[in-house]
Automatic annotation (TrEMBL):
Name of the protein in its database record: Cytochrome P450
Residues that coordinate or bind heme: 381
Family to which the UniProt record says this protein belongs: In the N-terminal section; belongs to the cytochrome P450 family. Belongs to the cytochrome P450 family.
A Pfam short name: p450
Keywords on record: FAD, Flavoprotein, FMN, Heme, Iron, Metal-binding, Monooxygenase, NADP, Oxidoreductase, Transport
Keyword Flavoprotein applies: yes
GO MF term set: heme binding; iron ion binding; monooxygenase activity; oxidoreductase activity, acting on paired donors, with incorporation or reduction of molecular oxygen
Cofactor: FAD; heme; FMN
Family annotation (InterPro entries): Cyt_P450, Cyt_P450_CS, Cyt_P450_E_grp-I, Cyt_P450_sf, Cytochrome_P450_monoxygenase
Length: 450
C-alpha cells in the first residue's frame, strides 16, 4: 500500500476482489462493498446507518460532535441538523449567490493576471482558494484573504496536516506517533476558529443571516435548545472544512475533464455564451444556474468518476445477510467504495468514459443507488445545493471568460487527504474576445443541450 495514496492503492485491490471483499489491515477487518446490488442493501436505513469510526474517529478530538462526526443517536445530531437546515434552503442560496459571485470575480482577477502574462495556473490551489473564501464569507462573514496570499492561509495548512495525520491514524502502528501532531494542528484550527467567532461577537456584522448566526443564535424549533459553545466551535471547523475541501476538488476535476474533451468543452462554452451573451463582464442571476444544464452535467459526470469524498461507512443495526450470502453481524461496518459503485458496468455502459450526456434530463431513473457522491439517507450531505450552485456558477464564468489549454503530457494524478483532488494540474488561459463568443454559439449545440 502506498502510504501517500492509501485509497487509490486499495481501489486497485478492491476492484480485483469483486463486489464484496474483506482485507485485514494491521488487524482491522475492512469489508468493502462496491457492487450495485449489495450497495443498494447497505443503503437500506432500516438495516444500516452511518458509522463514524475508522477514518472519522481520529478527527473526534478536534471536531467532536460536529455534524459530520457525531453519532446519529446523539442529541447533538438532530439539534444541529434542525438548527442549520434553514441555512441550506432555496432562499438561503439566493442570499449566498451575490457573495459567491464576488469571490469568483476575485479568482477571475487573479486568472486575468496569469492570462495577460502567459503564466499557467495551478488549478487545484486556486479552486481551493475560491471555495475556502466562499464558505468563509457566505457562511461566516469571515475573510481568509486567500487571493491576497501566495501561500495557503494558515487554516488551510493546519487543516491539510490534520487530515493527513487523521489518514495515517487509521494505520494502528502510526496512530500513537501522529497523535501529538494531530492534536497540535487541530489546536491551530481551533484558535483560528475562535477568531472567526470573536469577530462576530465583537459586532463586526450584526443581523447577518448566515450559518454562524444560526449557530450562535438559533434555537431548536421544537425543544428551544441551543448549540453549546464547545459544539459551536466544532461546527465552525466542520463547516469550513467540509464546505470547501470537496467542492474545490470537484471544480478542479471538472476543469480537467473539460480540457481533456474538446467536444464537451465546446458544448459547455456554447451553453454559457447562450445564457450570458458576448458581455465581457456578465451579471449572472441566481436563476441562470438552472439554465446551465450541460455545465451541471459535466460536474455530475466528474463526480461520478471521481467523487471527491470517495467513500462512506455503514454499520449494521442488526444481524443481517447481504446478497442472501454474506453474514454481517450487528455493529460490523462496511466501506462503500464510491468510484467503483459509480463505475459498475451493470448500471453504467462503458463506465470509464467521460460522458456528461449520462446526466441529460430524464436519464437518472433507476440508478439512484449507483450515484451517491453526496452520501445517502438522513446523514447525506447538508451542503449539496451550496456546492452545486457555487461550482456551476464558477465553472460557467470560467468557461465564458477563457480559452483553457492543459499542459501537453499531463496525466491525471490524484492527491489524497481523506478527500481526493487533482495533483499538479495546470492550465494556460487566454482571454476570449467578445466576438468569439458569438461565433462559438452554434445553435445545433444549444439545441442539443437544451
Ligand atoms: Mn458534504 C456530509 C460529500 C460539499 C457539509 N458530504 C457529506 C457526505 C458526503 C459529502 C459523501 C456523507 C459522509 C458520510 O456519510 O460519512 N459534500 C460532499 C461533496 C461536496 C460536499 C462531494 C462537494 C462537491 N458538504 C459540502 C458543503 C458543505 C458540506 C459545501 C457545507 C457548506 N457534508 C457537510 C456536512 C455533512 C456532509 C455538515 C454531514 C451531514 C450530516 O451528517 O448530517
Amino acid at each position: 500500500m502506498n502510504p501517500r495514496t492509501p485509497f487509490q492503492s486499495s481501489l486497485t485491490q478492491t476492484r480485483k476482489l469483486g463486489p464484496i471483499s474483506v482485507r485485514k489491515i494491521f488487524g482491522t477487518e475492512m469489508i468493502a462493498v462496491s457492487g450495485i446490488d449489495l450497495v443498494t442493501e447497505v443503503h437500506d436505513e432500516t438495516r444500516f446507518g452511518k458509522y463514524v469510526g475508522h477514518h472519522l474517529a481520529p478527527l473526534r478530538p478536534i471536531i467532536g460532535d460536529g455534524l459530520i462526526t457525531v453519532e446519529t443517536d446523539h442529541p447533538n445530531w438532530r439539534l444541529a441538523h434542525d438548527i442549520l437546515m434553514p441555512g441550506f434552503t432555496r432562499e438561503a442560496m439566493q442570499g449566498y449567490h451575490s457573495v459567491m459571485l464576488t469571490v469568483i470575480r476575485e479568482l477571475l482577477d487573479r486568472w486575468d493576471g496569469a492570462a495577460d502574462s502567459g503564466r499557467t495556473v495551478n488549478v487545484t490551489d486556486d479552486t481551493t482558494r475560491l471555495a475556502l473564501e466562499t464558505i468563509g464569507r457566505a457562511g461566516f462573514g469571515y475573510r481568509f484573504g486567500s487571493f491576497d496570499r501566495r501561500m495557503p492561509h494558515p487554516f488551510v495548512s493546519a487543516m491539510n496536516r490534520t487530515l493527513q495525520y487523521a489518514n495515517w491514524s487509521t494505520v494502528p502502528p502510526l496512530a500513537r506517533l501522529v497523535r501529538p501532531l494531530l492534536l497540535r494542528s487541530g489546536a491551530v484550527m481551533t484558535r483560528i476558529v475562535d477568531d472567526v467567532i470573536r469577530a462576530r461577537q465583537d459586532g463586526a456584522r450584526t443581523g447577518a443571516n448566515d450559518l454562524l448566526d444560526l449557530m450562535l443564535n438559533a434555537t431548536h424549533p421544537k425543544t428551544g435548545h441551543r448549540l453549546d459553545p464547545d459544539n459551536i466551535r466544532q461546527q465552525v471547523i466542520t463547516f469550513i472544512v467540509a464546505g470547501h475541501e470537496t467542492t474545490s476538488g470537484a471544480m478542479a476535476f471538472a476543469l480537467h475533464y473539460l480540457t481533456q474533451n474538446p467536444d464537451v468543452l465546446a458544448r459547455a462554452k456554447a451553453e454559457v455564451d447562450a445564457v450570458w451573451g458576448d458581455a465581457d463582464n456578465p451579471e449572472p442571476a441566481y436563476a441562470d444556474i438552472a439554465k446551465l444544464r450541460y455545465v451541471r452535467a459535466v460536474l455530475d459526470e466528474s463526480l461520478r468518476l471521481w467523487p471527491t469524498a470517495p467513500g462512506y461507512l455503514r454499520v449494521a443495526r442488526k444481524d443481517t445477510v447481504l446478497g442472501g450470502r454474506y453474514r454481517i453481524r450487528k455493529g460490523q461496518w462496511v466501506l462503500v467504495v464510491l468510484p467503483l459503485v459509480q463505475r459498475d458496468p451493470q448500471v453504467w455502459a462503458d463506465p470509464e468514459r467521460f460522458d456528461p450526456d449520462r446526466f441529460a434530463p430524464g436519464r437518472a431513473k433507476n440508478r439512484a443507488h449507483a450515484y451517491k457522491p453526496f452520501g445517502t439517507g438522513q446523514r447525506a450531505c447538508i451542503g449539496r445545493q451550496f456546492a452545486l450552485h457555487e461550482a456551476v456558477l464558477a465553472l460557467g464564468m470560467i468557461l465564458h471568460r477563457y480559452d483553457l489549454t492543459p499542459e501537453k503530457d499531463y496525466r491525471l494524478r490524484i492527491s489524497e487527504s481523506i478527500t481526493l483532488k487533482p495533483r499538479g494540474f495546470r492550465l494556460s488561459l487566454g482571454k476570449r474576445a467578445a466576438s468569439s463568443r458569438l461565433q462559438d454559439v452554434d445553435t445545433e449545440l444549444i439545441r442539443r443541450s437544451a
